Amino acid sequence: MNGTLAIKLGDRLNGLTITVANNAAMLNGRVVAEREGERLPPGLRVHLVPVESEQAENAIHYAEVPVRNGRFEFGNIPPGRYWILAHPVSNEEAGKLPIAWNSNGRAVLRREAAAANRVIELQPCSRVADQVVRFKN
Question: Which structural domain, as residue segments, surrounds residue 32?
Fold first, then answer.
């Protein structure tokens, strides 16, 4: 079973198993505005959203990284099929946990990603470089 576990300062856990697996993929690239000459908004992030519906509630299969100078980089991503999406984050959301860490956030990401339908398949141990993601204002 995969999922999220909240641990508070001073908590003790027994019987916890953490699985570390091989075969993670890496992905990097850049975000460009869909229309020539448009600027990217501040607080832009790139998200990987699992295409498989059975992973829809598995927060571990979502990933999010900030866009810096138009570029992004993911590491240690489980192999699989993902929708890739550039999504702006407001100033008040910027310091908070990743959007995919709650079920409402995952639902928003899945709707937007499915509508954009930009799919990337990451193979075990793959290194995908220079992926271009178009951001639509």
Answer: 25-135
Reading the block at residue 30, the tokens are: 């850049």
Task: Identify whether 19 is part of a domain.
Answer: no
The count of structural domains within the chain is 1
Q: What is the pLDDT of residues 97-110, one digit of tens each?
A: 788 888 898 999 99
What is the tens place of the pLDDT at every residue in 7-34? 888 888 887 766 666 788 999 999 999 9
18 neighbors 7 (Cβ within 8 angstroms): no
Q: Say which CATH number the domain at 101 has.
A: 2.60.40
Look at residues 75, 73, 87, 95 and name the one whose alpha carbon lies nearest to residue 115: 87
What is the value of pTM for the model shown? 0.80
Q: Which of 13, 8, 28 is nearest to 131 (CA)?
A: 28
